[in-house]
Automatic annotation (TrEMBL):
GO terms for molecular function: oxidoreductase activity, acting on paired donors, with incorporation or reduction of molecular oxygen. Residues 13-282 form the Luciferase-like domain. CDD domains: Tetrahydromethanopterin_reductase. The keyword Translocase does not apply. This is LLM class F420-dependent oxidoreductase. It holds the Pfam family Bac_luciferase. It comes from the Bacteria. Keywords: Oxidoreductase.
Length: 314
């Protein structure tokens, strides 16, 4: 691993009102954070527009999307957005793209997403050459396009992954796999081998594995478990996450109850020293990078700044 610890730990930022988010990212850069990841649901402000505005107010902070829903924008349009960002702030954007939920695709856009991974494969077959080579000609099951762009933008393209099939696909076609709410043993013993298998199948180097790590600032175990359980309960109701948790070795009863064992497999809690030690332990595994997100206990704004400072000190 040639990257420094600082380069391997990013901050997961919650979506906010656009002007507030720009100011938040300005402050995050000031405390020394090297890069951030931020998501965006179909009903939230366009994240690339806001990140572009933030790039004009910052000088070095790298910004990643985790994730952009592939169904929500055509890959040609995404390429135009991303290349515009790159022209204004070269080398500071990473695109994390995912199939997201077929339910969201149907509800928000009226799109039947019956083969999300097949669609994502084809999406990347259009997006990568368009960004990296400046042109693409493609006629497939889902997408058809023939277009050239005036410039190239060699932006890293990562992919959200949860199950082994998605990790294998990321190994084949992406520059990295981004996980969310996955227990570390599952990442090391199920996700990583699938990622490596996909890379081997494609005859390429295994891309990086980026693990999402939720953090709670409390030294009290019971408080951490209570706060963590509240935040994680929604994931235990989603079929794809339930399948992943079963594959990770949890019983349906544990998943239904959001058991202590499940919460502790996902959560890092404590003061700065303890959290720092645990994050370093994770970086001594085969996980390449971490994106660290806050689960607030009391004062969300103060705790978010506290976490940014902790990460920025590396």
């Amino acid at each position: 691993m040639n990257q420094s610890v600082r380069e391997r730990i990013g901050l997961s930022v919650q979506p906010q009102e656009p002007a507030k988010l720009v100011e938040t990212l300005v402050e995050i850069e000031k405390v020394g954070v090297s890069h951030i990841w931020i998501g965006g649901a179909p009903w939230e402000p366009d994240i690339l527009t806001v990140l572009t505005a933030a790039a004009m107010r910052t000088t070095r902070l790298k910004m990643g999307t985790a994730i952009i829903q592939a169904f929500a924008r055509h890959p040609v349009f995404l390429a135009l957005q991303a290349s515009s960002f790159h022209a204004l702030a070269p080398g500071r954007l990473q695109l994390g793209i995912g199939a997201s939920s077929p339910l969201y695709a149907k509800r928000a856009y009226g799109i039947e997403m019956d083969a999300p991974l097949a669609y994502l494969r084809e999406y990347m077959q259009v997006l990568r050459p368009l960004l990296h080579e400046g042109a693409v000609r493609h006629q497939g099951r889902f997408l058809t396009t023939d277009i050239e762009l005036p410039t190239t933008a060699p932006i890293p393209l990562l992919m959200a992954a949860l199950g082994p099939k998605a990790f294998r696909l990321a190994g084949e076609i992406a520059d990295g796999a981004i996980s969310a709410m996955c227990p570390v043993p599952y990442l090391l013993h199920t996700a990583l081998p699938a990622l490596q298998e996909g890379a081997t199948r494609a005859g390429r180097k295994c891309p990086r594995l980026v693990a999402h790590v939720p953090v709670v600032f409390t030294e009290d175990r019971e408080t951490a478990l209570q706060i963590g359980r509240q935040a994680m309960r929604i994931y235990t109701t989603r079929p794809n996450y339930r399948t992943m948790f079963v594959a990770a070795g949890f019983s349906l009863a544990e998943i239904e109850a959001v058991s202590e064992r499940l919460v502790e497999s996902l959560l890092v809690y404590g003061d700065e020293r303890r959290i720092r030690e645990r994050l370093l332990e994770l970086l001594h595994t085969e996980i390449d990078e971490l994106t660290v997100g806050l689960i607030p206990v009391a004062d969300a704004a103060q705790e978010a700044l506290r976490l940014a400072r902790l990460i920025g000190e590396w």
